[in-house]
Every structure is written in structure tokens, then in C-alpha cells.
Amino acid sequence: MTRQMTGAKMVVQALKDQGVDTVFGYPGGAVLPIYDEIFQQNDIRHILVRHEQGAVHAAEGYARSTGKVGVALVTSGPGATNAVTGLTDALLDSIPILVLTGQVPTFMIGSDAFQEADTVGITRPCTKHNWLAKDTDTLAETLHQAFHVAQSGRPGPVLVDIPKDVQFANGTYTAPEKSDTSIYAPETKGDITAINELVEALEKAERPVFYTGGGVINSGPKASKLLRELVDATGIPITSTLMGLGAYPASGENWLGMLGMHGLYEANMAMHDCDLMINIGARFDDRITGLISAFSPGSKKVHIDIDPSSINKVIPADIPIVGDVESVLTDILKVWKARGRTVNREAIAKWQSQISDWRKVECLKYVQEGKTIKPQYALERLEALTKDHDRYITTEVGQHQMWAAQYLGFEDPNRWMTSGGLGTMGYGTPASIGAQVAHPDSLVINVAGEASWLMNMQEMGTAVQFRLPVKQFILNNERLGMVRQWQELLHGERYSHSWSEALPDFVKLAEAFGAKGILCSDPDDLDDAIMEMINYDGPVIFDCLVEKHENCFPMIPSGKPHNEMLLGEASTQGVIQAGGAVMV
Amino acid sequence: MAALKIKKGSTSHSAYNLRPNFSDEVETHTLAVLVDNEPGVLARVIGLFSGRGYNIESLTVAEVDHTGHLSRITVVTTGTPQVIEQIKAQLGRIVPVHAVHDLTVEGASVERELALFKVAGTGEKRVEALRLADIFRANAVDSTLESFVFELTGTPSKIDAFADLMRPLGLIEVARTGVAALSRGAE
Ligand SMILES: Cc1ncc(C[n+]2csc(CCOP(=O)(O)OP(=O)(O)O)c2C)c(N)n1
Ligand SMILES: [Mg+2]
Fold first, then answer.
1. Which of B13, B18, B49 to mutate to test the interface with A (most CBs of A within 10 A)?
2. Which of A341-345, A389-393, B9-13 comes out lowest in average pLDDT?
3. CB within 8 A of A230, min separation 6: which ones?
């Protein structure tokens, strides 16, 4: 049966056929036909954001918390350019989203028409792939291909630019199963010879460590399950990147905590001193490796990644395995079990006792005294009071983000959403909205810094309009704290423009939006205030006034190896030397 | 012409091809990239090189299979072995890229480039230019009383050599196509 319909109707039909229940968007002239179709149906819910950047981050929050493709719909020109930051964010963190943009009619393309922008050109480097849909007859197939590309292989953002005349014209609808998705078919099964080699190395290793990343979460819940099985059966310690938190539970026996620039001492020391490093779905990012020439000098390195370009990009792999984490872990477990479930128990016990010694350093120790709330204390209390809830956490970018990663515990995948690769201030509020839309009855908290929070605060309007009870937990140090920390460590305490002189009254701001505002400045009031936030049935802005000059430790200064971490306030002046200073 | 048989979308190769070779020596490689002949695909390839800071020594592109809508991009690039591996892997990631062949490592290949040279002059120089063109098997495809346009096909180094010889004889303009390359043999 061939089905004739307008391009605009096809968009809605394709979304339905792909199982989409929610679209985050903002209308404008070039998408009016699509909005008209959205108006005339009830299957797809449209969440009206307040800024297109918000739509894309909300789609990311939706995608990260569900594993499904997040969808955003924006108009041409400024609508499309406002989506660029979100697209780049999703590209760097490998998040599957589809952005639909309106475009001026095909016969006006190239004429500098009103609200014309070369959207496909602008977004080419910040999408996994993008399309200009020039013909209504092929529009549906393009949309189905877009979904396919977004979620297969290494996931990422895709964009389909749809001229207005294509939306109005009639054409034949192609169903998903009739669409040619063979255009993109990345390999998912790992090379079995390499997997055997890995198992052999694992059996003999004396100081092995798993180093896992967002790829485990992207691979799906089954991958996390297999990872837990492998880790617990072998007793090998495991650390994770910022992106991978929750794949292995924070309460798990073999958990070392996060690694990297602000990672835990024991995690970074284990990475430095290990003899076998098994990287699963992580990419040797510069926040992880520190000084490359001194990165884990004595280890054999296994790298499992679905993207061949990740392998050998930064750190040479001794055993490279290209494949999907779930499939590769299945094979590893199969081979390891078949060969008799061997590990070097004696050596690993010694390794674990070494790790226990490192743990004794208590690298996350801080002092809460007096009448000022330490940000770490605020997060410890937040953790204690919310960990038994069905909870999703998003963050902004800065010190608060690193403290959240250090002091909150994640027991499951898809519960933690943060801008890792791009480090986008303004990510957290819209992401919390996306997660709350997907999980209406869960507790969704955005751990924010006051400066980041102001970057997309307009989305409080979205939260109020759609009755999304998101909790904005702002650690307000009245500083661009992370910038201030670097200026202290690197630029002789010359605090150039790292604070704002005119912060709003966040409680009044909450009220102005129709939300609830809570201010807390006394450690003794903190628990009650947090409980008030949790128990309030609606969106809350929580202004938590914290110590203004707290630094985030541990820290590996740029250009230093893992075993030269800074642990505390002692000797932090001039620690970043010329070589490290040029790095970000 | 029938559609070429190329496995679509496949960018994987044995993981053993990925064993690292991190030498510092800069090598020149000729890559053949088979792509869907669709708008923007060349921009994707060029954008990859500029965005990631890779070199392009020469680049040619044309449709090679009309029915299958396939184009062949031949890129000559330079880099350390690690960079060359990255370039190939990054090219392989582009959705409309069907296959990436490194002609420099995948056995023997032939490389050809076409160039046009405008040489102006009279008297002794003009005679010498014509004599050298003959030795290089270049054809005069245009001539006036004081100029020639020569057409020459050959390896890039042969074309370089001819350009060097023509320069003192009145070379005023060169147009080069860039390299086209194929592997030798039946495969
Ligand atoms: C869009 C954007 N602009 C600038 C930066 C650089 N930057 C990183 S952290 C930071 C300060 C963040 O301040 P705040 O949100 O208050 O968090 P804090 O570090 O104080 O916890 C800045 C400016 C960024 N990451 N993103
Ligand atoms: Mg701050």
C-alpha cells in the first residue's frame, strides 16, 4: 500500500513509526506546517522549550536517561544556529539525538532569504551525519535512515533540514521497514582472536584494572550487567570516566571511584601502576590520561571500542578490539568461562591490599566546620537523603560537577547526565527537564553552579508550564569556581572576571517563574531544607550558599602524570608549570 | 555501466590491522575513497582534513559509477603512520564513505596526473621547449606564433620535472588535475 501525504504529515508519521513519544521544540515560520500537524494529533507530546539550545539538551537528557533517540524540532536560521551547541555536545558525548530543522523553500535556497542559514553546512562538523531533504518522496526514508544512523554504531546527533515547500508538497510515505538502512552498517562483533588474547592476558595479570567509559552505557543495560558479572567474577578493580558512572555500581566491591583530572587517588594510582589495563568504551581523553608520555608506563593496554578511529588515536593499544561492548563482553565471558575461569588470585589479592593502602589516603576528605556549608558537605547530605529514591542526576559544568561525580553514588546506568566532552555550561537545566519528561514520577535533580545555571535558566518556564518537578540544586559560591581555582593555581591568584557582582535573588526568581525557591546557608538547616525540596510537588530552585573559595581536589594538574596528584590545600601555588599551562 | 560491487557502509577490517606503529617518520600515502555521489560529500571529506589538521597534497574527485552513484576521491596526504591510520579511520566513519583504500600499502599501484603548461617565447627558447616536450611525450594542444599549450600525463614527479625544465623557457601558467590512482593487477 502506498500512502500519499504531505511532507509535514510524514514527519509526524515517521516519528510515530519510530516509537517517539516526545519532541522538544520551538516553532517558527519554516516549521509551521509541521507544527500544524502536531496540533492535529495526540500521539506525540510536544514540549515547548524557551530556547532552542534548551530543546537539544532536553533531547539529550531524554536520550541519556532512556537509551532512546531524543528528538528536537526547531525553525530555520536562528532556530538552527541555536541548536549548534547542543549538537556539538551530543557529538562529543556520543548521544543519539535527531534535530529537525525547518529551511526556506528549495526555490529560495541561496538567495539570503529571511531566516535562511546554511544549516547543513554549519552543522556538518557537529553532527554524525546530516541531510537536506529536497524531495517529499524521499523524506520519510531519510528520516528513518537518520534514526538508524543516530543509534547504530557509536551513537551521535543527526540533523534533517526540511525546506518549507517539501513540508507542504505531497509524496509517498515509506515505512521504516521499507527504508534502506544498509547505507550504514558498522561492525559490532569483536575479533575473536584478539578476545582470546585478552582473556589470556587477564588470566595472568598481577595488577589488572578495568577502565570503563560512556560506551558501556551507550551499548545498553545488558552491557552493564555483563560488565558487573565479569568484574565480580574476576575480582578485578574497576574505575570509570565521568561518562561511564553507573555502569558498575558505586556500592560494588571492586569499585575504585572515578578516575582522571579530578578522579580518586586510588583510581589514578591503580591506572598508573597496573600491568594490564582493560579499556571498555572509553577514549583516553586528555582529562583521563594527564601527561601522555608518563601514562601508565608499565601496562599492557586492551582497548575495546565500537569506533575504529578511537583506537590508537591517543594511546597505542596492545590488544585492539573493535566491537559493541555488549557483544564483546559476551564473548569475553564465554571464552574466559570455557578456559576455566582462571585469574591470578594470589597476585590480585596483593594488588587489592595495595589499593586498600591507597584508599587510606582518604582523598575526598574535607573539613566541615563553622557556619558555612562546604559544597562537599552539601552533596554528601544530598546523597544521603536521596540515594534511596528513584533518582536521576544532571549537572552543569564546573567544580560542582566534579564534586557531584565524587560524592554522589550511581548504582545503575542512565541515571547520571553530565556534559563531559564539551563541558557545556547550561546543559543541566534543560537536560533535567528532558529526563523528567521521560520519567515523570522520578526525582530529577540538577546539581548546578550559579553561573552555569544562569545560562539556560529560561527553561524554568518550561518546567512550570509542563508541571515537571525538577529540582535545581545550586551550589552557589558566587564564583565561576572552576575558573577561579585555575587562576589561583596557575595565574598568581589574579581573579580576572571569575565572579559575578550581581547575582539574582534565586528565591524571588523561582517565585517569578511560579516555582518554589529555597535558600539555605546554615549547615544545621541543610537536611531539613533538602527534605523540603524533595517533598515539594513541583519545580524547585534551591539556592545553597556554600564556601566561596573551596578548591576541587584531588587534581592532576595539566601536563602531569597520574602519580603526581594534588591532594589538598597544601602547596597549590604555581603547581601548573609552563608545559601544562598551555593546556586547557 | 553496472553498479560496482562494494560492500556498503563497511569500515571494519581485522583488528590486527590496527596494531600500532608509532614511528615519527612522515610518510606520503595515496588514498582512494569511494563515496556516494551526493551533495556535500566532498565537503565532508575536505572538512575532516581541515578540521583535524591533516594535510592534503592533492585531491581529485569524479563520479566513476553512474548507475551506482559512486564517486572516487583520490587523496595524497602526508603524516606519521599514526596520523595516516587516524585519517583512514576518520574517513571510514563518514556515513556516505563506502571504502577507504590505502594504495601505498595495499600492494603496487599506478598513479597518473594530467597537466597543461602554457609556455610563451620565441626563437631558440621556443625550439628548445618543443624539443623537450617531444622527449617527455607531451602534446602541443594549442599553439600561436609565440606560445604553446602542452598536455602531459604522468606521475606527479614527471610533471614536476617537466615544469622545472619549462620554467626558464617561458612557462607562464600550469594547470594540474591532481593524482588519479589504481592498484595494479586483477583485484
Ligand atoms: C558555555 C561555557 N562557557 C565557559 C565555560 C568555562 N567554564 C568552565 S567552568 C566555569 C565556571 C562555572 O561556574 P559555576 O557554574 O558557578 O560552577 P562552579 O565551578 O562555581 O561550581 C566556566 C566559566 C564553559 N565550560 N562553558
Ligand atoms: Mg559557582
1. B18
2. B9-13
3. A329, A332, A333, A336
Query: pLDDT: is A501 or A212 the higher one?
Result: A212
d(CA A291, CA A560): 5
* Closest CB to B22 among A129, A309, A316: A316
Q: Which domains does chain B have, with CATH numbers?
A: 27-102 (3.30.70.260), 109-183 (3.30.70.1150)
Q: Whose CA is nearest to atom 4 of ligand 1?
A: A425
Mean pLDDT across the stretch B48-76? Answer: 95
- Interior angle at CA A260, CA A222 and CA A253, nearest 5: 50
Q: pLDDT tens-digit profile of A55-69?
A: 999 999 999 999 999
What pLDDT score does A563 carry? 85
d(CA B44, CA B35): 11
The question of whether A284 is a catalytic residue gets the answer no
Strands (E) across B17-138 are located at 27-36, 58-65, 70-79, 97-102, 109-120
pLDDT score, position B3: 39
Torsion angle in degrees (nearest 10) through CA of A264, A266, A271, A273 = 150
Average pLDDT (B77-81) is 96
Shortest-distance ligand to the CA of residue A400:
1
Partner residues linked to A520 by β-bridges:
A544
ipTM (interface pTM): 0.91
Q: Chain A residues within 8 A (CB-CB) of chain B?
A: 120-121, 124-125, 128-129, 132, 149, 182-187, 190-191, 193-194, 307-309, 311-313, 316-317, 320-322
The CA-based dihedral angle spanning residues A537, A538, A539, A540, taken in that order and rounded to the nearest 10 degrees: -40
Share of chain B above pLDDT 90, in %: 86
Give the integer Cα–Cα distance in Å for A44 and A100.
15
Check CB contact under 8 Å for A129 and B40: no
Give how far Cα A558 sits from Cα of A168, A288, A314, A565, A578, Å: 54, 10, 16, 10, 10
Letter for the amino acid at B52? R
pLDDT in tens, B9-28: 333 334 445 666 678 899 99
Ligand 1 atom nearest the C-alpha of A453 is: 15
- Mode of pairing for the β-strands spanning B97-102 and B109-120: unpaired
The model's pTM is 0.94
Q: Which of A10, A455, A482, A555 is catalytic?
A: A482
Find chain B residues with C-beta within 8 A of A125's C-beta: 47, 51
Collect all residues with Cβ–Cβ distance below 8 Å to A194 and sequence separation of at least 6.
A319, A320, A321, B15, B16
- Do the Cβ atoms of A61 and A395 come closer than 8 Å? no
Contact between A189 and A327 under an 8 Å Cβ cutoff? The reply is yes
Mean predicted confidence (pLDDT) in A44-51: 98
| C-alpha count within 13 angstroms, C-beta hemisphere, residue A533 | 31
Q: How far apart are CA A574 and CA A488, in angstroms?
A: 8
Question: Is the distance from CB of B115 to CB of B177 less than 8 angstroms?
Answer: yes
Taking CA–CA distances from A307, the nearest residue in chain B reads: B93
Model confidence over A473-526: pLDDT tens digits?
Answer: 999 999 999 999 999 998 999 999 999 889 999 999 999 999 999 999 999 999
Q: What is the pLDDT of residue A32?
A: 98
Bond preceding residue A554 cis, omega within 30 of 0: yes
- Pick the catalytic residue: A10, A18, A24, A52? A52
